[in-house]
Design goal:
There is one protein chain. The protein is an alpha/beta fold. The chain contains nine helices and nine strands. Strands 2-1-3-4-8-9 form a six-stranded parallel beta sheet, with helices on both faces. A hairpin with a 4-residue loop joins β5 and β6. The protein is globular, with a radius of gyration of 16 Å.
Amino acid sequence: MKTFILIHGSWHSSWNWHKVIPILEKFGHKVYAIDLPGMGRDKTPVNEVKLHSTVQKVCELIDSIEGKVIMVGHSKNGIVISQAAEYRPQKIEKLIYLAAYLIPNGKTQAEYSALDVNGVLKPYVTRYPELNAHTLQTAIYKEGLYHDCDDSITELAKLLLSHEPVESGITPLQLTDENFGSVRRFYIECTDDRAVTPFIQQKMYNETVCEKVYQIHTSHSPFFSKPKELCDLFLEIASL
């Protein structure tokens, strides 16, 4: 049996995984899904959130768990699981990037996001310089994030999505071949993704090669639209 740590993406929180967790647990696996600092139920002021402190929170969870973990990072916070692997390579069995930013050493998530010119979200981002944060306008939720999901997900998102801290996206990753590079990497490409488009997903996993790449024919949110199929991929990767 494996232990999974599930890391949500921008504006979201641990509720992303509410359909996935019961499926994995049914197979006997342990699953942890946390709210990153400033997100969901974590009340850290968003203007105080830094990439380093975010990764430290994840590392504290890793340290509290006996044995190795499989880390899943969605969307922007692929950067979080990469940096955590640099700090805890001996504790992480595998990294799974789910339509996630897989960024090389010295680069930032924002640099790669800027290359993704066909994504539909950017015109709907509202920036708050005084908070060093931004939000996503509700008008783009369905088309941009959940076009193959039940309408109830969009309605939940209107209640639950929050500010996203800017600092983590503009902080260069610090990765080495000895640490990060020693952890097995897998990528799950969402082929109908309008938020992190297949173009940028393919660019990233071709530049930072993964052991295996899978495709799932979904929007940016397969944990809502096809949770069973997504868990099938998680379980297959866990078995390798």
